[in-house]
Specification:
alpha+beta, Alpha-Beta Plaits, four-stranded antiparallel sheet, two-stranded antiparallel ribbon, 26% helix, 36% strand
Amino acid sequence: MKYAFLIYGNEAAYANATEEESQQEMGEYFAFSNAYRAATSASEALMPTSTATTVRVRDGKTLTTDGPFAETKEALGGFYVIDCANLDEAIAAASRIPGARSGSVEIRPVVVFQ
């Protein structure tokens, strides 16, 4: 079964990290990605929420707003889609994602349309 791993973290903490801390964490992400390469169907890091645009359509009119839908301390920073045998395997994988140490990783099964 495919699971989406949504990685949430504090953007301010990332912005204030030293170059050495940033490179250390990126190295850990590269190692994780390499370990799960065969089972991964998608993975991307996202730009900060300050670059986001939210779109809504109300009464046939398209409305746009700068930024995310809701302000939170933790923002979606990236994701993986990984094929795992079951939820236990998905939890084990999520616990290896570097962002789980300082933020959180939400695991969601991916719907497969037939």
